[in-house]
Design a protein that fits this description.
This protein has one domain: Nucleotidyltransferase, domain 5 (2-Layer Sandwich). It is about 45% helix and about 15% strand. It is built from 6 helices and 5 strands, in the order E-E-E-H-H-H-E-H-E-H-H. A 5-stranded mixed sheet has the order 3-2-1-4-5, sandwiched between helices. Strand 4, helix 4 and strand 5 form a beta-alpha-beta unit. It starts with 6 loop residues before the first strand and ends with a helix.
Length: about 180
């Protein structure tokens, strides 16, 4: 079950490994009433040049994150801010969702460990959208993907879209259950 106080998170990064450079964190509650977005300044983390080349092919709006990173706070500051936000909008049972079992949440957890901060969610509360999408296809024959709004590869817009997708799936699965 997906609850309003669950959190969807999306990262924009310069790589696909857990210790990749994080450009920005976007997140929202599942009811979309609370959001978080921050760009992150330069870090001592890995940069994958295939990912950099991929970024060069993205829209100007998506690439705007690089303009914000130049003036952005350090990773440790943004993670502290994210922890405060997470605890304010969620509770000890809040699930954290990412789009992939080994990407957004794993990278965030690695970043928290890297700066010596506590991870604000319990490891057993990590959830993955792609598994739920596959389940929707298996049960309903359709991935239930809604019309895309916002800027592709903007962390907050992606998080909001993923929440809308999860809500669409939840409605479809509730219909099957009737």
């Amino acid at each position: 079950m997906i609850y309003a106080e669950d959190i969807m998170v999306d990262l924009e990064t310069l790589g696909v490994t857990p210790n990749s450079h994080i450009l920005s964190i976007g997140a929202c509650t599942m009811d979309r009433s609370q959001t978080f977005y921050k760009a992150i300044g330069l870090q001592q983390r890995n940069i994958d040049f295939d990912t950099v080349r991929w970024w060069l092919k993205q829209s100007d709006k998506a690439q705007d994150v690089f303009n914000h990173c130049a003036q952005a706070p350090a990773l440790s500051t943004v993670l502290r801010d994210f922890t405060d936000w997470f605890k304010e909008v969620g509770d000890s049972d809040s699930k954290i969702w990412g789009h992939g079992a080994t990407f957004d949440v794993s990278m965030l957890e690695n970043a928290y460990r890297g700066v010596g901060q506590n991870i604000p969610w319990a490891f057993w509360n990590v959830r993955d959208t792609r598994t739920l999408i596959d389940t929707a296809v298996w049960v309903t024959g359709n991935d239930q993907k809604p019309e895309r709004k916002g800027t592709h590869h903007n962390a907050l817009d992606d998080a909001v879209f993923q929440v809308e997708w999860m809500a669409s799936i939840q409605r479809a699965l509730a219909e099957v259950r009737k």
